[in-house]
Amino acid sequence: MKKIPSQLFLIGLLFIQLASPAQQKAVEAARSWIGKEGASILKEYAEVLSIPNHASDSINIRRNADLIQKLFSGRGFSMKQLTFPGSPPVVYGEKKVPGAQRTLCFYVHYDGQPADPSLWKHQPFEPVLYDKAMYQGGQKISFPQKGQAVDPNWRIYARSASDDKAPIMALLTAIDALKDSGIGYTSNIKLFFDGEEESSSPHVSSILRKYHELFDDISLWLLVDGPVFQTGDPTLKFGGRGVTSMELTVFGPSRPLHSGHYGNYAPVPGQLLAELLSSMKDRDGNVTIEGFYNSVEPISEFEKLQLSRVPDIDRKIREDLGIADPEGKDENLFQRLLLPSLTVQGLSSGNVGKQARNVIPATATANLGLRLVKGNDPEKMLDLVEAHIQKQGWHIVYEEPTEEIRMKYTRIVLVERDKDGFPASKIAMDHPAILPVIENVRAFTGEKLVLLPSEGGSNNIFTVIFDQLKKPGISVNIVNHDNNQHAENENVRIGNLWYGTELMAVLMSMPAEKNMVIKKR
User: Fold this and answer.
1) Is 164:197 a contact under the CB 8 Å cutoff?
2) pTM as predicted
3) 3-state SS track over 338-354
């Protein structure tokens, strides 16, 4: 992996010139507290990271929920766990501010992806500290003792160190810093800690309905999850792509055959499937399925303007990924993310390598992943794929084909559709509740703030908040881009944890909207 230089250290210099007095006090409070308590903060964070947190591990997921409740209760928040059958608890908290006209809700998830210890350099739930990233030649070091300086380039390695327990620690530290400096909140603050985001949050809608009175007054959701821009520049995003999938199995002979005896006679499933898949995209990577792009909802002129200001890092991305010629030709990554995609996520037929045999397999299977954008309906997009398959001369079945069907049709494909897909959701960047936040964050970060209409990943929480609750929200990103989230050796750069702390302090103490001059630019 090649390093993409971090520029977050420049934020401090920009802040001195751009921040309002209120923001300056909040950031100075955060930096002062970090300077005094940095070692203690890392020690507490190691405790948070030491508990396994996959949503299916009911005992440990409850331990996580209990610890989060305890940590925020001890800092003056009114906390409780919201339960629903079959679901990890949502840990809810609130802090009411007399006279506040705005209620901010910080969304964070405390569950994580599964972790295979055999792939990790260290045990995934035994946090270790490195003096820099492993891929940069970093070495393991001891956690600092109280009073010792903390280097922002250090990294903590553990599952969920970045995705998504880092915001939990950033919020705790910001709360401590504001209290230590006597700075009050300017909004009512609510906290929503989700315990099954990595499983697409299947019970969040039910929990929000069951406890709706807790959420009706929220002015703006702040979804704190995900990495900053690839250059290290601070980032805000305003939605996420939807997702669905489809698995295709094509059939050749009724049983595997000796390729010497039956080659040139029996249809070869792998070749048939390759032909079908190649018909779905052209050489430039554009999907050729009729109507695939027709339902895309265009972005606004304001969003187009923000997209035009995104730093040009296309060459860096290609070098980092070893891609000479990406799909889309003249469009960059962030333009391509505004279109639905079709990806062959997996292929299987016969064997390769030392297990290869002289056979014609009986079947070949491909898994297709569809990432969706605003306007795409998951079921209708799968309908379009099926219609394309039929136009290529294939007969579709939804269960194993009978002998009668096999003898009647020359090309048969078994289709298994995803039942849990969900649409993309996004909010307008210039929504009245959002512009004040953009202005406050930009005053803190400077003009390096990157605004993206949508993130590439899919998170059902966007659908719940934007489309079901009809509330505005922003995806707030704080962790380093090279964090290995979802993979082995996940990590967080300490400088990004400190940046997140400063940002949380700014958001919780930003001026009331009526006292702001809001510029739409």
Assistant:
1) yes
2) 0.86
3) CCCEEEEEEEECCCCHH
